[in-house]
Amino acid sequence: SRKEEVTIIRSKFPNKVPIIVERFYKELYLPRLDKTKFLVPQEITMSQFVSIIRNRMQLGSTQAFYLLVNNRSMLSLSKTLAEVYNEYRADDGFLYLTYASQEVFGCCEGGT
User: Fold this and answer.
1) Is the dihedral of CA 85, 26, 78, 36 positive or negative?
2) Which of 17, 48, 94, 105 would disulfide-bridge 64, Cβ 3.0–4.6 Å?
3) How many angstroms separate the CA atoms of 71 and 49, rounded?
4) Taking the CA atoms of the chain, what radius of gyration do you get in angstroms?
5) How far apart are alpha carbons 42 and 11 in whole angstroms?
6) 112 pLDDT above the threshold of 70
């Protein structure tokens, strides 16, 4: 089970956060990731993790990209993954993040 998987992962890598990153179910523009499970150092910030995911998808700098926790909350990019994990991890021990674009942003604001 995922719960057992997290127990093993956390015992081997206590300073890393097990994360599952999935595409928002209504997402039309962003590509699917080639993998969904990540084991990330707990001290990195959400901003750094967003950069990792953006790079993995080879997104351009103007492509809007948002990471949501529990399909709803946008997180402060200055929070560490340890803080986010402690606050939002699921019962099975994984932190579930969903990514989405919001096409409204960046399309009509002069390239920003």
Assistant:
1) positive
2) 105
3) 17
4) 15
5) 14
6) no
Paired tokens of 17: 């956060």
Question: What contacts 9, CB < 8 A, 6 or more positions away?
Answer: 16, 18, 39
pLDDT at 83 > cutoff 90: yes
**What domains lie within the chain, and their CATH numbers?**
2-105 (3.10.20.90)
Size of the chain, expressed as the number of residues it contains: 112
Please name the amino acid found at residue 84: V
DSSP per position, the chain: -HHHHHHHHHHH-TTEEEEEEEE-TT--SSPPPS--EEEEETTSBHHHHHHHHHHHHT--TTS--EEEETTTEEPPTTSBHHHHHHHH--TTSPEEEEEE--THHHHSSS--
Q: Retrieve residue 7's tokens.
A: 């127990």
Please answer whether residues 82 and 43 qualify as being in contact, where contact means their C-beta atoms are separated by less than 8 angstroms: yes
Tens of pLDDT, residue by residue over 11-27, are 999 999 999 999 988 88
